[in-house]
Design a protein that fits this description.
The chain has a domain of about 300 residues: TIM Barrel (Alpha-Beta Barrel). The two termini are about 35 Å apart. By secondary structure, the protein is an alpha/beta fold. The protein contains 14 helices and 13 strands. β7, α8 and β8 form a beta-alpha-beta unit. The protein has an eight-stranded parallel sheet.
Length: about 425
């Protein structure tokens, strides 16, 4: 009992995430797209000595918003003749534009970086963009060109991703990591890339309570993060591979994090609590939906065209929406043949209800458009606990928090406690 109590009093700050000679606070903020993990959020993590992520999801749109470029408008204009055509196979991304947008986003972030921490870019394989190999290579190479500290490979097995970077001059000095949800996925990755003589610098093990796309089926509840991380740590030790393991998914308190750090993990990746930070890219009204959510309001469904289950709030506007596919502007989920599961579902409903004013599509969602408009409210399982991390204001809304407050609460809290922020001076809280 005394030993258990002693463990509860340990802090995340008692540990360090080591990359060679560099030692960091072992906290990563996950890379939430589209521009939900903003540059501002990543910069705070780096300033405070941890690791922040930006996401390259829909990076041309992010560039248009942040730097007043016109990549989306130009692409829409170029393909406008195809808008009413259900065949989207001709739609391609201009690789030069994609490279420029990536460089703008990464360079601006890295130029603003302060502190001893690091900034990585989250790169999803499932953004196939009707050119899976070419677009992925350009996104990764452009991020390295622009000076990113590292790349986290997500949403896919990424069996060929290292090979796409093997000739890049920063292939061996930038930090490259992979997200997996099982020992088997990690084994496949390592086996496929053995000939490159380049191990990942870290492995993020994402459990079934994570937000957004999951590396599990609808039987996700039968798995748990502690068991999976223990299996990965044991496997790496058996193979004598010194690769830091980062636990992710459902880590809500500093004490939760400590339990993984003590069990052999080198760090934790957290995101859910940062969705309601001032620096997070979600609109304020959407942050309030996250605060208000109950556990029953959080669902795992199969509406993503990627084929992966997704966790989200059940009142997300993307569910049941039958908007026209907008691939001419976006098209990030088009496969190598220009297909998308949402287009198939939309065309089916259109054929069944040719005179309907509004089409309803329940089985799939147009993720590109809904993510761009912040109308796909993906979230982690512990989102229902966010209301317990802050104050409720007289008007019934909840006070937002700073990224620094949340980061330091993870870093220094003990005994499963969550420290509330100082009450807002502008809006006094209810007694």
């Amino acid at each position: 009992m005394l030993q258990g109590r002693k463990n509860l009093m340990k802090r995340v700050n008692d540990f360090r995430l080591k990359f060679g000679k560099k030692e960091l606070v072992p906290i990563m903020i996950g890379g939430m797209g589209v521009d939900i993990s903003t540059a501002e959020l990543a910069l705070e993590a780096a300033r405070l000595g941890g690791v922040g992520h930006i996401s390259d999801a829909m990076v041309t749109d992010v560039s248009d918003r942040r730097f007043d470029t016109s990549f989306v408008k130009d692409k829409t204009r170029f393909y406008k003749h195809n808008i009413d055509n259900s065949d989207k196979s001709i739609i391609k991304f201009d690789l030069g534009h994609l490279a420029e947008a990536t460089r703008r986003h990464v360079e601006a972030t890295m130029e603003a970086k302060k502190g001893e921490g690091m900034i990585f870019v989250n790169c999803m394989e499932k953004l196939t963009m009707n050119g899976p190999r070419e677009t992925l290579q350009v996104r990764m190479a452009s991020a390295l060109d622009a000076g990113i500290d590292g790349i986290t490979l997500s949403a896919g097995l990424h069996l060929g991703s290292f090979g796409l970077l093997a000739d890049h001059p920063r292939f061996r000095d930038a930090k490259l990591g992979i997200i997996v949800s099982s020992v088997r996925a990690l084994q496949l990755f390592l086996r496929k890339n053995a000939k490159l003589d380049r191990l990942p610098d870290y492995v993020v093990v994402e459990g079934p309570l994570a937000g957004g796309h999951l590396g599990f089926g609808l039987d996700w509840a039968e798995y748990d993060l502690a068991t999976i991380t223990a299996e990965v740590v044991r496997y790496l030790k058996t193979e004598q591979l010194d690769i830091p393991v980062i636990a992710a998914g459902g880590i809500f308190t500093g004490s939760d994090a400590v339990s993984f750090l003590e069990s052999g993990c080198a760090g934790v990746q957290v995101a859910t609590r940062f969705t309601v930070a001032n620096e997070c890219g979600l609109p304020d009204k959407v942050k309030q939906e996250y605060f208000k959510a109950s556990e029953a309001d959080i669902v795992v469904n199969t509406i993503s065209p990627t084929g992966y289950p997704m966790r989200m709030l059940k009142n997300t506007p993307a569910i049941g929406s039958g908007i026209r596919p907008n691939c001419e502007a976006y098209g990030y989920l088009l496969d190598g043949n220009g297909g998308c599961a949402y287009i198939t579902s939309y065309n089916r409903e259109l054929a069944l209800h040719p005179r309907a004013k509004d089409i309803v599509v329940m089985d799939k969602a147009c993720l590109c458009t809904h993510m761009r408009n912040f109308n796909c409210w993906t979230c982690g399982h512990t989102t229902y606990r966010l209301k317990d991390t802050t104050h409720r204001l007289p008007d019934g809304s909840y006070q937002q928090l700073s990224a620094e407050h949340i980061f330091k609460d993870y870093q220094f809290s003990t005994d499963q406690k969550v420290v509330l922020p100082a009450p807002s001076m502008a809006e006094p809280v209810l007694a």
